[in-house]
Amino acid sequence: MPGATGTAAWGINDAGQIVGNYQALGPHGFLYSGGSVTTIDVPGATYTELAGINDAGQIAGRYGDATGGHGFLYSGGSFTPIDVPGATFTEVFGINDAGQTAGRYLDATGYHGFLDSGGSFTPINVPGTDNGTQVFGINDTGKIVGRYEDTTCTGVPEPSSLLLLGCGLLGLAAWRWKRAA
Fold this sequence. Notes:
There is one protein chain. With 181 residues, the protein is mainly β. The protein has one domain: Neuraminidase (6 Propeller). It contains one helix and 14 strands. The chain is globular, with a radius of gyration of 22 Å. The N and C termini lie far apart (64 Å).
């Protein structure tokens, strides 16, 4: 984007339309289609980021305003906010051709992924995690991708890392022994 200090493309559909955001006095959303770039910002928002676009040209993303962070669906020139009930903020990252959106939200218990099908929200949580699940994409068959974090991990290295650590310690001990002799 001309004049931008940074640009990121986050989504592309089968027609080659690309959505993303650029930095110029705050993040702004953009649509690249047919050789033209169009800025798309939620009216009154402090930032807008476009994350996904389906083959019908519907765009999913996130924006911030005085009340917090929200997800949205942009279709036919209109913005529809997407807020998971009870969440302190919602972010939408993916959209499929059926119009289902997916993303993450934050509530008092942490981060959770979600699937939104026509306003019906389904929480998505990886079992056994304590620091949340985040959903980043959904395909046309309803399969989702994302990540999770687990702060209870003990950090035990895998066997190959232990072998490498052991060899390094042996080498250090041999060097110190040789230096002392």
